[in-house]
Amino acid sequence: MLLVLALATIASLFIGSGDITVAAAWNALLHGGQDTTSIIVAEFRLPRTVLALLVGAALGIAGALMQAVTRNPLADPGILGVNAGAYFAVVIAVGFFGASGISQYIWWSFIGAAVTTVVVYVIGTRGRAGGTPVLLVLAGVALAAVLGGISQGITLLNPDAFDKVRFWASGSLQGRQFDIVTGVLPFIVVGLVLALTLPTALNAVVLGDDVARALGANVVRTQILSVLAVTVLCGAATAAAGPIAFLGLLVPYLARGIVGPDQKWVLPFSLLLGPIIFVLADILGRVIVPSELPVGIVTAFVGAPILILLMRRKKVSAL
Q1: In whole angstroms, what is the distance from residue 82 CA to residue 84 CA?
Q2: Helix (H, G, I), strand (E, B) or coil at 32
Q3: Helices and strands (DSSP H and E) totals, the chain
Q4: Angle at alpha carbon of residue 90, lines to 240 and 275, rounded to 5°
């Protein structure tokens, strides 16, 4: 997996929608310069590749956490409404506060994701039977539907906001530079570190709350930390690249197919598989059409048939 990730990263630096040769790209990386080739490679391809690695890792780990904590092998990070909350906040920022670029609304996206997760948790834990994975899922789906409808209404009523948001909303890495990378890097690192402290507790939680408590696991603490990690990871990834569908669903499914249900292996493999798939999808989007295809469209278009094929060949990998 590390070798494949390294090869995908190298390919991302040398393959693009333009006519830059491998030799010219290599020279630009080694020596820099102010010519067009050097600027494209050093100031656009390189940060784009780094961002693809970060976003892929964030969404891969977030998907594994989400599927483990909800005990649903086909759950997706968006199930908590994180993407919908981030998208809603960006629409508000663009439509009512004049935000005009990702560097301006990145914080809106992150705050929207965080607030949405808190609201979902509060709603899902109300009542005597609150706090179960099913209620959290229902609360997340319901809130995501409401926020998604409001966001669509605002963008349709405000054409300027729609024009500014629609390309970001499709999920894209095009034009991203190092200011975006440095903006989301601390959050993604914190989220990844937090997630990688949870596999032992998650192995107990996936067996059910009663069994987990009998094994000495703190179920509520594990759920809260998992939700917090998912919020940080998805919020930062969505702010940087827009809502990316399907990646968080496919990556942990493939990881379990390779290493089995042990979360001590699933999480590290998801950490590698996520960036591999996302970087390759971004490369495909650069060359499949002349003007580039947003990576969010590629992940959905390519990932869905792959998952359907896997599900037809064998049963869904158990948690």
Answers
A1: 5
A2: coil
A3: 15, 0
A4: 20
DSSP conformational letter for 17: S
Local mean pLDDT, 10-residue blocks, the chain (319 residues): 95 82 79 74 88 95 90 76 86 82 75 86 74 76 90 81 73 85 91 93 86 85 88 86 86 90 94 95 88 86 75 61
Measured CA to CA in angstroms, residue 318 lies from 115, 207, 254 at distances of 32, 11, 11
Cβ atoms of residues 168 and 175 within 8 Å = no
* Structure-block tokens of residue 319: 């948690």
Closest by Cα among 56, 45, 58 to 11: 45
**Residue 292 φ then ψ, to 5°:** 75, 145
Tokens of 82: 């994180």
Task: Give this prediction's pTM.
Answer: 0.87
Q: Angle 46-69/178-195 helices, nearest 10 degrees?
A: 30
